[in-house]
Amino acid sequence: MRKEKYLFYYLLLVLLMSAGAAVWHIFLPNLAESFSVWGVNRGWQTEISLWNIGLIAGIVITLLSRNVEYAKILSIISVSLCILLGIHHLVYALTATNGNTGLHWLGAVEVLLLGSAAGIIAIIKSRCFKEQKP
Questions:
Q1: 95: closest CA among 32, 40, 31, 37?
Q2: What pLDDT shows up at residue 120?
Q3: 31, 72, 86 from 101: Cα distances, Å
């Protein structure tokens, strides 16, 4: 099997993570109020959900078309988002002085550790960003 398969496996993982986030942000916004220090804001949570749905659309198109160039770009975007969002959660988990930090710890573990690590491994194993010989 081709080395690019790692990118597609990673994007499948991101698809599942994004679908889960989209569902809970739009249908269960009170989880943020109960399990984070951020509280609830239905408008922002709906926007986060819609952003996830947009990412899902790009991933589905990429997976169905098996387009390696799309997979490369979406993998870089996804790893970047996982690192940034995961660090954001980790900062809140470590610095909160009151409130429930459960959601932040979950975000740090799932997004920063799982999402970032899996993406970095997929990018390295796929070797798709090495110079291609003609």
A1: 37
A2: 96
A3: 12, 34, 13
Question: H or E stretch including 101?
Answer: none
How many CB atoms are closer than 10 A to CB 113?
Answer: 13
Judge whether 89 and 112 are in contact, CB under 8 Å. Answer: yes
Ranges under pLDDT 70 in the chain: 1, 131-134
pLDDT in tens, 79-114: 999 999 999 999 999 998 888 888 889 889 999 999
- The DSSP line for 7-50 is HHHHHHHHHHHHHHHHHHHHH-THHHHHHSSS---HHHHHHHHH
- Spatial neighbors of 96 by CB under 8 A, at least 6 apart, are 37, 104
